[in-house]
Design a protein that fits this description.
Elements: E1 3-7, H1 11-26, H2 31-36, H3 46-64, E2 68-75, E3 80-90, H4 112-131, E4 136-144, H5 153-168, E5 171-176, H6 181-186, E6 190-196, H7 206-215, E7 219-225, H8 239-242
Parallel strand pairs: 4-5
Antiparallel strand pairs: 1-2, 2-3, 3-4, 5-7, 6-7
Helix pairs in contact: 1-3, 4-7
Length: 244
Amino acid sequence: MPLELQEATSDADFDELVPLQWISYEQPFNPFVILICPTRGTGPTARAESMQESKERQLQWHKADPSSHWLKVVDSDTGKVIGGAEWKVHESDPYAKPPEQPFTAYWWEEGEKRQFVDAALDQWMAPRMERMRKPHLLLNSCFVHPDHRRRGVGSLLVEWGTKKADEMGVEMFVESTVQGEPLYKRHGFANMNDFNLKPSNPNPGEEWKRLEKELGPMHGYFMWRPIGGKYEEGTTIIPWKTQT
């Protein structure tokens, strides 16, 4: 069953990509995506309405960001989209101008849950703002339908980025889950460090506690691919550790 890698070029592409994103990140459960794609409410239409909001918002973000490139992998026998990714191709320092305000998860309802997510996003973004200060590629999202894993879909999505980075002569980054780490290592990424998002609150209320329990441990790996993709432990110079 041949696979076709295509760049998403129309609004209609997001009608397939975002529902696939939700399904893929639910199996296994990925708490990081819940920060960006929450299900709001509990009624029978809550999931569908939340998915629609997520689709519209991610499409809006994509259109407003020249660095954003969404990809899809199509099973040519069925015509179905079975994998997707968003690459951010930065030709200059994206943090040359620091944000004027803290990151705010405006897509969450006001209250303790939003405060929790705001704190998590601050922790998530801090290493990016410290380490991603040169031209680079960032794999912002990568997902494959559970029924189509181990077919090479993930490799196709990653190879688009490694080829682009090698053409540009730039480094690459990805914040990986435990499940994704082996894929990225095969494509030249090295694990720089573990990270855990742990928002703190000296007096958490019930909403904060419920969301903290629902998401569970938010653990991952900060991975980096040097220019050219050849990393040697103890030899390769890590740029952000030499910056003054």
